């Protein structure tokens, strides 16, 4: 812990020393360290970064950027205590930089000190109230503490600045789930999936939706992969695929064409209208083949039924009057 006296002395030392050529040199060093630090981080060159900034912090102990990037690179290689030491120094040297406070918070988190972590985010937000990263991680901090209402508030503030932050979108859904606010939770999962429909989080979000009887997104077993796709919608009483459904079909076509051993089954359901179900199944097959000319028609099988699709989840049974399902099997 640095005493208040020393905190006041450091700026004085800097102000006395930063005159003439010395001031120019320190400014140059700071800019150079910023540029090099960003380069090391963007290229994942953490060991080189550490070696470089260990020298810089010895040669220029009052340069905040050198301390900052050394701390961040230590954090990247999970040397969390060393990271915290240098990020503390960066904050001491430049207490008005919200990024320094934020990263010091991450270092406290890595060291299991959640209260100190939270204080750092509060300090960052006091300087810059719309600091997006601090808002998101303050939300995480409050979520982990079980304060779901406050967590959601921070996520919402972050999303006002950037509507597609994945962690904020996903964790907001989890917070609403914890609070039992089901209609809002359902909407949150749809918003997440509208932005991010790939990966494990997307599969979980789709599962949550389906358990509530909402099938706007579903998980499909395509060979060894589980693919999360939006519901395939058509124009009323026709087999014309709506524009909103095309991105999912484009993704499906790419997955199928990349695996020549895969046979895709398209199954269409339309209650009391077998002809329309047939037209829709064939329309989807045609669309996929039009998108990927390398697709062999023999690898895409179609079937159709004039009854609802039955979906069983746990002990509940859902019947979808109109639906298209996909299953990929390896030959």
Q: Got a strand count?
A: 7
pLDDT < 50 runs, ≥5 residues: 1-23
Separation of the first and last Cα atoms:
65 Å
The first-level CATH class name of the largest domain: Mainly Alpha
CATH topology of the largest domain: Serine Threonine Protein Phosphatase 5, Tetratricopeptide repeat
Q: How many domains, in number, for the residues? A: 3
Helix content: 55-70%
Identify the overall geometry: elongated
Q: Residue-averaged pLDDT, rounded? A: 90
Q: How much β-strand is present in the residues?
A: 5-15%
Description:
The structure is a single chain. The protein is α+β, with helices and mostly antiparallel strands and 331 residues long. It has three domains: 1-126, Serine Threonine Protein Phosphatase 5, Tetratricopeptide repeat (Alpha Horseshoe), CATH 1.25.40; 129-196, Tetratricopeptide repeat domain (Serine Threonine Protein Phosphatase 5, Tetratricopeptide repeat); 218-330, 2-Layer Sandwich (60s Ribosomal Protein L30, Chain: A), CATH 3.30.1330.60. Helices cover 61% and strands 14% of the residues. The protein contains 14 helices and seven strands. The strands form three sheets. Strands 4-3-7 form a three-stranded mixed β-sheet. Strand 5 and strand 6 form a beta hairpin. Helix 4 (64-76) runs antiparallel to helix 5, helix 5 (80-93) packs antiparallel against helix 6 and helix 8 runs parallel beside helix 10 (166-179). The longest helix has 23 residues, at 20-42. Mean pLDDT is 90; it is low at 1-23.
Structure keywords:
331 residues, alpha+beta, Serine Threonine Protein Phosphatase 5, Tetratricopeptide repeat, 60s Ribosomal Protein L30, Chain: A, 3 domains, three-stranded mixed β-sheet, two-stranded antiparallel sheet, 14 helices, elongated, disordered N terminus
């Amino acid at each position: 812990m640095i005493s208040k006296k020393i905190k006041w002395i450091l700026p004085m030392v800097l102000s006395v020393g930063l005159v003439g050529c010395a001031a120019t040199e320190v400014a140059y060093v700071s800019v150079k360290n910023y540029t090099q630090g960003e380069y090391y981080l963007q290229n994942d060159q953490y060991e080189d970064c550490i070696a470089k900034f260990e020298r810089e912090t010895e040669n220029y102990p009052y340069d905040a950027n050198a301390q900052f990037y050394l701390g961040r690179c230590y954090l990247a290689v999970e040397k969390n205590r060393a990271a915290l030491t240098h990020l503390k120094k960066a904050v001491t040297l430049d207490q008005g930089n919200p990024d320094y406070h934020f990263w010091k918070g991450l270092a406290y988190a890595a060291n299991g000190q959640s209260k100190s972590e939270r204080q750092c985010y509060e300090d960052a937000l006091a300087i810059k109230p719309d600091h997006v990263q601090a808002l998101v991680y303050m939300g995480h901090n409050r979520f982990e503490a079980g304060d779901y209402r406050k967590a959601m508030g921070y996520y919402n503030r972050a999303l006002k600045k950037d509507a597609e932050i994945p962690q904020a979108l996903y964790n907001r859904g989890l917070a609403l789930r914890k609070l039992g606010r089901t209609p809002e939770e359902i909407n949150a999962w749809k918003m997440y999936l509208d932005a991010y429909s790939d990966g494990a989080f997307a599969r979980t979000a789709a599962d949550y939706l389906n358990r509530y009887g909402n099938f706007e997104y579903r998980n499909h077993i395509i060979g060894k992969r589980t693919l999360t796709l939006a519901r395939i919608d058509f124009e009323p009483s026709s087999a014309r695929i709506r524009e909103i459904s095309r991105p999912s079909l484009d993704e499906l076509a790419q997955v199928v064409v990349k695996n020549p051993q895969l046979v895709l089954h398209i199954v269409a359901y339309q209650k009391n209208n077998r002809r329309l179900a047939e037209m829709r199944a064939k329309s989807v097959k045609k669309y996929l083949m039009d998108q990927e000319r390398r697709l062999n028609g023999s690898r895409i099988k179609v079937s159709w039924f004039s009854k609802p699709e039955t979906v069983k989840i746990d002990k509940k049974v859902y019947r979808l009057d109109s639906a298209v399902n996909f299953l990929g099997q390896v030959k």
